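Bug report

Summary: structure tokens for 3-oxoacyl-[acyl-carrier protein] reductase differ between web form and batch submission.
Environment: batch mode, default settings.
Steps: 1) Submit the sequence below via batch. 2) Compare with the web form result.

Sequence submitted:
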Amino acid sequence: MGLLEGNVAVITGAAQGIGFAIAERFVAEGARVVIGDLDADAAATAAVKLGGADVATAVRCDVTDTADVDTLLAAATEEFGALDVMVNNAGITRDATMRTMTEEQFDQVIDVHLKGTWNGTRKAAAIMRERKRGAIVNISSLSGKVGMVGQTNYSAAKAGIVGLSKAAAKEMAHHGVRVNAIQPGLIRSAMTEAMPEHAWEQKMSEIPMCRPGEVAEVAKVALFLASDLSSYMTGTVLEVTGGRFM
């Protein structure tokens, strides 16, 4: 029996990267998953990679659009009969110094990360409270803890996700719904590996474990928070950082 045997999970931004790794881990632990992503073709490809219609389905979703989020969550109940786990992972970056950042760049990042997580949390919670059970996992970032140069938009959004998660956890605890967050640090991905070598080395120098994290390592923590292994945890923030900025 897998840790999520019989569970149905919705994961946003899951066509690639951390989101796909979470979906992959969940399926390996017995869950059926709904892949939500702005890129419909990539989401469909991801669902096939995960095993096809028996275990995964794909829905195009703009997390800033409430109707899209409703459609995404409806797919879980219509295709698989339930909604047990919600992972709010979708995100973008629009990095720039505060002096050069445009208002549009600020708004885009706040909308996708913070409003998107709010949409996913509140909509999933409304469904889960009817069954008196459910787990919501929100993906924040180390940038929301310490702030990063060039990321006033991203750091603000990721810090906001922590506050949102804690407030939602207090609201939903007596309904049997748990809400927790993860703050990844430097995780190896196509995006991070594309950064200039000097930037990579500077970040690496801050990590006591002397290596970047892997997407699978974030996925294992998401599995912990989604499963009954964390049954007495809500409102918590788990750092997956290799000890960076303790």
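Above is the batch result. After comparison, the two runs are identical; trailing whitespace caused the diff. The first strand starts at residue 8 and ends at 12. The mean pLDDT is 97.
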